[in-house]
Design a protein that fits this description.
mainly alpha, 434 Repressor (Amino-terminal Domain), 3 domains, 18 helices, 4 strands, 4% strand
């Protein structure tokens, strides 16, 4: 038994089950120190202990000792090194395996339809990112005036898988997986300190990478490429807010106070207020752009009695925020925010229900796939209607 494989799987499964080290150790009849040593790969458990740990986590022993297939064709980059990077990749690999296995069991595979779009995008890159975003919107059946109401459903409709993970950092917002590794897929960090608007933007941002930067998908590349990030940010901004309708909505709200004007447009397109300011700033001289940030924060603080942003290193008005055009690079407060119901994938849960009701998989297997406890799965099963 490879201690490193066991340690990696323990952390992944424990996080997926939402359990603490103390809870697993207690349920398995081990001291916290003994369990921690096993999870750190510093000691190997006896067979009886391994079975007890598997029972505490509600998984077969084989799930803890079998190596997870390492993804290769992945774009996973962050603003700083992540200790949890390998765990995230392992979780994504298992999720993709479950998804593709379900599709095969049910005979319900949706061939993705990004191939022709990728070719068209490469041919249109010389016309600029707004034109590329318009081309992508047309491929998804969106007209130039139509906001994106359900980004998960939109992506799943063309065979792009969507997965949510929770990583406690704003340095990592998402990743994407190429077709060769079971994708195409986008993975979004849905940490509760990141606004739902960031989740939506990140999903489209990763779509941008799938369309624009497939040649650079390499799991061993960890540092962000500023030029590619800038292109993906611009793609997401123009995909979510087509230029013509954005200009119209912004002009229609011209009589409102600046804060209300920004928030109204933000609600229309279901984006962050930063994305709105980014688009307004695109049309201003560079030396006038920081004033937008200052004005937004000033009006919000005057009205609500507190600053708009709550960052790890607070700074009321960072002057360089628009010099590196990254509309979703910072996590912070999101006024008039959406909630988690605005970012939900449907297809995996729908396939799980179909498989359970058709006796293709057990309820416990369904719980594993959806990351629920067995009791939580039973509650969901009991709630299915129609």
């Amino acid at each position: 038994m490879d201690n490193r494989v066991l340690a990696t799987n323990l952390v992944r499964v424990r996080h997926d089950r939402g359990k603490s080290q103390e809870a697993v150790a207690e349920a398995a009849g081990l001291s916290r120190a003994a369990y921690r040593a096993i999870e750190k790969g510093r000691s190997a458990p006896r067979v009886e202990s391994l079975r007890a740990i598997a029972g505490a986590l509600g998984v077969p022993v084989r799930d803890l000792v079998t190596p997870v297939r390492r993804l290769q064709r992945v774009r996973f980059r962050s603003l700083k090194r992540l200790k949890s990077r390998d765990q995230v990749l392992a979780s994504v690999s298992c999720w993709l395996q479950d998804w593709n296995e379900l599709e095969e069991l049910l005979g319900d595979r949706i061939p993705h339809r990004l191939g022709p779009l990728c070719e068209a995008v490469q041919g249109a890159r010389g016309t600029g990112i707004p034109a590329v975003a318009a081309l992508a919107r047309s491929h998804f059946g969106l007209n130039e005036r139509e906001p994106v109401h359900d980004v998960c459903g939109l992506l799943e409709s063309v065979g792009v898988k969507v997965f949510a993970v929770q990583v406690a950092t704003d340095a990592f917002l998402g990743l994407s997986v190429a077709e060769e590794d079971g994708g195409p897929a986008v993975v979004v960090n849905t940490w509760d300190r990141l606004a739902v608007e960031h989740w939506i933007f990140s999903a489209v941002h990763e779509l941008g990478h799938l369309l624009l930067h497939l040649a650079s998908f390499d799991v061993f590349a960890e540092d962000e490429d500023e030029d590619q990030e800038r292109e993906a940010e611009a793609f997401a901004s123009h995909f979510l807010m087509p230029d013509g309708v954005f200009r119209r909505e912004w002009a229609d709200a011209a009589g409102l106070a600046f804060l209300d004007r920004v928030l109204k447009v933000k609600r229309v397109f279901r984006v962050s207020w930063r994305t709105v300011l980014f688009r307004v700033a695109e049309r201003l001289p560079k030396d006038e752009r920081p004033a937008l940030w200052s004005r937004m924060n000033f009006e919000y603080q005057r009205r609500h009695g507190r600053p708009l942003l709550k960052l790890a290193e607070p700074e009321a008005s960072p002057a360089g925020v628009f010099r590196a055009p990254r509309p979703s690079a910072l996590a912070g407060a999101e006024p008039a925010s959406l909630d988690e119901h605005d970012f939900q994938g449907d297809r995996l849960a729908r396939m799980v229900r179909q498989a359970v009701e058709g006796d293709v998989i057990t309820l416990s297997r369904a719980a594993e796939i959806l990351g629920l406890s067995l009791n939580g799965m039973r509650e969901r099963w009991a709630s299915w209607v129609g």
